[in-house]
Amino acid sequence: MTDDRPAILSLVRLPEPQQREMEATYAVHDAPSPAIRAVVTDGRRGLSAAEAAALPGLRLVASASAGMEGIDRAALEARGVALANVGPALAGEVADHAMMLLLAAWRGLPAQHAFVRSGAWSREGHWPLGRSLAGRRLGLLGIGGIGQAVAARALPFGLRILYHARHPRDLPWTFVPDLLDLARQSDILVVAVPGGEATRGLVSAAVLDALGPEGVLVNVARGSVVDEKALIAALSQGRLGAAGLDVFASEPDPDPRLTALPNVVLTPHSASATEETRAAMARMVLDNLAAFFAGRPMPGAV
Questions:
Q1: For position 1, what pLDDT does the model report?
Q2: What is the DSSP string of the chain?
Q3: Which of 90, 105, 195, 222 falls 20 to 30 Å from 145 in CA-CA distance?
Q4: Which pLDDT tens digit goes with each residue over 233-262?
Q5: Which of 79, 251, 257, 296 is an active site residue?
Q6: Is 251 an annotated catalytic residue?
């Protein structure tokens, strides 16, 4: 019996409820075939130009993540293959995580946590005074969905918002056309740009030095965006105040020099890792597939 359902190559698995739904709706393959019309992957697994070339019927690549650094977008664009991701489903959750890292790094949470646990409080007295967040300047490197969600959450804390992107946007915050200038003007810099070669090492030693010895860096984007060796040097030498990091150059084994530093808050690439958001991300994969094959605009179209 002929299966008339669209053929899909699944390179990553969705959570079980959505995976079962996808398998009930589409002819899901786990190996390349000329019949494949769509690929479900994510930024880490990706899809190379050679893999795409082996799929002559390919019309859509649906990423199950916001990141798309492993997907050869140029190869897809050259063939007119559509691309979608799930960025809208996770922007709010990642922004919440960014604010958690921002607050923890700014107020020195790791060192205070260790201070109480070690018993030093009873021996040495109260912890030194910190600095208020109100009135400080928050620089956003990237002003897509995540960057805008961070800004919305930062405003009630009294932070002043600046941002850098390739082009100014119709937004109520201050656009800074030069990244070094953004770092110089900011007390806190939040990195929220896509990964990939275009942004590799964008946060350089010069940017970190411009942020300064009281500055805080928060990265919820990709580890590749920050020059990690320069970051380790700046933090250990006091040229940067603190950092809150959800992503690293080498995952899941971050540089031990980084994990040993007392002025860094570390989380395991978990900014979107809630049950609700992971389910919403998987749902958006299905919504993107359904919209594409029905000829409707995809909610996560890139």
A1: 56
A2: ----SPEEEESSPPPHHHHHHHHHHSEEESS--TTEEEEEE-TTT-B-HHHHHT-TT--EEEESSS--TTB-HHHHHHHT-EEE--HHHHHHHHHHHHHHHHHHHHTTHHHHHHHHHTTHHHHH-SPPP----TT-EEEEE--SHHHHHHHHHHGGGTPEEEEE-SS--SSSSEE-S-HHHHHHH-SEEEE----SGGGTT-B-HHHHHHH-TT-EEEE-S-GGGB-HHHHHHHHHTTSS-EEEES--SSSSS--HHHHT-TTEEE--S-TT-SHHHHHHHHHHHHHHHHHHHHTPPPTTB-
A3: 105
A4: 999 999 999 999 999 999 999 999 999 999
A5: 251
A6: yes
- Confidence bin at 67 (pLDDT 50/70/90): confident
Out of 222, 228, 278, 283, the active site residue is 222
